Amino acid sequence: MGGPGDPPEGTPEGGPGGAEDEYRSVVFDESFVRAARLQEFSAKERMADHTPAVRRRPPLHRGLGRQALILVLLIAVAFGTAIYMGVRHPYGSAQTRRPVESLRITVIPLAPQGKVPGAADAESLYARSPAAPFETGAKGIPLPPSRSTAHFSDSQVVTALTTVKDYIVRSSLYPEVLTGREVRPARSLIDSDQLDQFDQSFDHPAADGRHAPTGWVIRIDPARAQLADDRIRVLGSLEVTEADSATLEITADHTFVYALRPTGAADAPASLFTVRRALTFHLDRDDLRTRQVQLITSYVQAGPLACAEDSAAYLRPLLAGQTARSGAPAGTNPYETDSPTALCGTLATGAQPRV
Question: How much is the pTM?
Answer without folding.
Answer: 0.72
